[in-house]
Amino acid sequence: MKTDPNSRHADLRQSRISRDEADIQSLENNWVNPFNSEDQDLVSISTWTLSTTEVLKDLKDAEDIGRNAYEEFRKDRIEPGHVNTFHDPIKSKS
Q1: Domain span at residue 94?
Q2: pLDDT per residue over 1-30, tens digit each?
Q3: What's the structural domain count of the chain?
Q4: pTM more than 0.90
Q5: Pick from 23, 30, 69, 90: CA 20 to 30 A from residue 12's CA?
């Protein structure tokens, strides 16, 4: 039994395959590589916008900010003589 080539799924037609391949080439030629070690700036993959200095500082300091927040939480809520109960709301750091 022979099938009509026009009855195949649209994604399997040569015209669709060619268009998909062209789209992939376009992406490869136009996207920023976020893992390129030559680029020192933090760039959004989808918009190509550079991050602000505030965002860069937050990312750079994230581990210290988290460590300090944990120490404050432990001291204020867990250790003997703590000030707050465990379930009290945590104040924003910003």
Answers
A1: 45-94
A2: 566 656 678 888 899 999 999 988 888 777
A3: 1
A4: no
A5: 30
